[in-house]
Amino acid sequence: MLRYHRVEQGTPEWLSLRLRHFTGSEAPAMMGVSPYLGRNELLRQKATGMVPEVDATTQVIFDAGHAAEAAIRPAAERVIGEELFPGTCSRDVDGLPLLASLDGLTMDGSIVWENKLKNEETIAHIAEHGEPPLHHVWQLEHQLLVTGAEKALFTCGTDGEDFVRCWYESRPERREAILAGWKRFAEDLANYTLRPDEYEFIGVAPDRLPALHVAVSGRILASNIAEWRDRTLEILAGIPRDLRTDQDFANAEETIRWAKEALDRIAVVKDAVLAQMPDVEQMFRSLDDIGEALGRTVKDLDGLVKVRKDNIRLEMVQKAAESVRAHYDALALELGAYAPTMPSALLAELGASIKGTRTAKAAAAKLDSAVAQAKIAADRDADRLRTARRLFADAAARVGVDLWPDGPALAQTMDEDALLGVIARRVNAHRLQGSRPTSKASKTLSLEAICARISPLGITKAGLAQLGFAPLPDGGYLEADFPKICAALVATLQSAAKSEMADAA
Fold first, then answer.
1. H or E segment at 106?
2. pTM value?
């Protein structure tokens, strides 16, 4: 069922929606053809919710894209002959939560529109092949899959007077490939194990050869370079690389600033020496040694700070998720089949909760709050499911038979009023059927016979029970009830259609 979401692109609500779905812009990375993002990095982002912050350069590109979209929209509408509406929609396909954020969709949903900023490679590819490059193709294929549209108009440009366009229609082999790709991705995501990043230290070159000697007139009158070098190298050797606390990170960042200042001082000294024109072979060698050591330290610590910060955040998110998971496990021991289901996007949502935090302390506070809210939600679901279990148990005790084999599944999706309605209908149907004759003279239908009559549709015993038709002692159903079964099916289908229309509105 296609669902439309009334969210504005770029808002926190939209970002949260993207976190819980597989999106069109992620399809190229999932298929391994994105020039901007690798599949493994996409897995990591979806698993942890940790998405890189949008920097100033990227924001400029985003803003340019929005401006180009607005400028080309009237021209795209003239090409299509219909008005285009931006929007966000989702559909579950074979259990996959798919989402598409559309530049434009026609009112009848038959055509989608996607615009990209002017790019010479894209323009050349369209001219040669009649379609966009493959990384754009997978986004279009995804959009057609989600919306059910017949075709897509692809444009590339910055304004309504200067753009190229082409039409794209889904191909069976590509539709099959993208579905298989998302299924594989979903399985990999479910089994994803967070692996800390590793930082590759900068290698130290062998001892340098002595410098070529050139004799010139002049000499160094006084210098403490040798002592300065020895003291600097001694300090650098004592700098810790195992960063754990906020204080460790603060010390490391201060050391980076200190090292950069020292590098600047070396440059100043070199300039001063050159101005005096002495023979400074040994001085330059000492300064170069110090400079190389300082440079290695800056790069090492820069890398260590970044990697260790990321790893600490991942460890914190994992620990928070384990706390919530343990809470769900405890509820599962108590409630069994009626236990609440832990959200599949929990880890990603916890990771997203610490986005923008600068210190481990701030991240921990955000995670504590997110964990508390997750447990509150679990307890709220558990209370509702306990009530459902009690309602079914009490009704079964009154009737003397369990008419709700699908009770746990019903309880997951229905509120108390809806469950009471199901209970009442099945109890009434059971009592009514119990009062009817069940002799051989009463014609009965097997479940298989009913399915054959309503083919190509089908139904299960649980489905018939949900409609209010419990089986007879011999497992069959009264022939006389078949028209009522058909009427109940029609009513259910009409209700689903009305619900879909209401969601679309």
1. strand 96-106
2. 0.49
